Each structure stands twice: as structure tokens, then as C-alpha cells.
Amino acid sequence: MKPVPLLLARLVVAAVAGLAPAASAGEMYSSHSEYGYAGFSPGGALYINALPSNAEVRLDGVLVGLANDLQASVVDARPGMHTLTFQAPGYEPTIVYVRVVRDWTTRVRLTLIPAR
Length: 116
Fold this sequence. Notes:
Layout: H1 6-17, H2 21-24, H3 26-29, E1 32-33, E2 36-37, E3 44-51, E4 56-59, E5 62-66, H4 67-70, E6 74-77, E7 80-87, E8 94-100, E9 105-111
Parallel strand pairs: 3-9
Antiparallel strand pairs: 1-2, 3-6, 4-5, 4-7, 7-8
């Protein structure tokens, strides 16, 4: 019979004992955080450019600021699909669906359509 590597043996013992693998092989998971590898951010970011500059920008219904204030900054967001809503007086409100990717900045450019 071939010898079983120590790490594999620990994982098998943990599975038989009903323990989580991290309980028996802590050194394997010690560099991971709740969101992935230690040292990485928990989410991604959005860089938003919108006109007119007085448009309100909402991320999943929560006001993140006016378009003018967001021109030179990024908005942190959790990875996944999100809804951006843009509203300004005299313009049609617009909804944009955007996917945020972990450790990535997604650029959103939008010009609102004047209301009739």
C-alpha cells in the first residue's frame, strides 16, 4: 500500500470525524480571510461618470452622492450584480445594471436624456 500524504490524511480524518477541514489542516487555510486571500479587498469598486453633474446616484437604492462629487473618486461595492439609479431635475430617470468584480474597478459612463 502506498503511503498517504500527511495533509490528505488530515482531511480524511476530519471528514470522518465530521470536522471542518480547516479544523485539522489550519496551516493550509491560515492565509485566507473571510473574503479570500489575506491582503485583498473584500469587494470591488465603481468609477462613475455621469451628466448632468447634479444627478443623484443611488447604488441599490442607497444614495451615494451627486455625479459631480463622484467624478474623482471610486465607490466601494460588494461583488455581484447591482442597480445604479440616476435622477436629475429635467431628465428622464435611468437605471443601469452593473456587475462588480472583486478587486476590479468597473467604469460606468452615462448621459441622462432630457425629459420632454
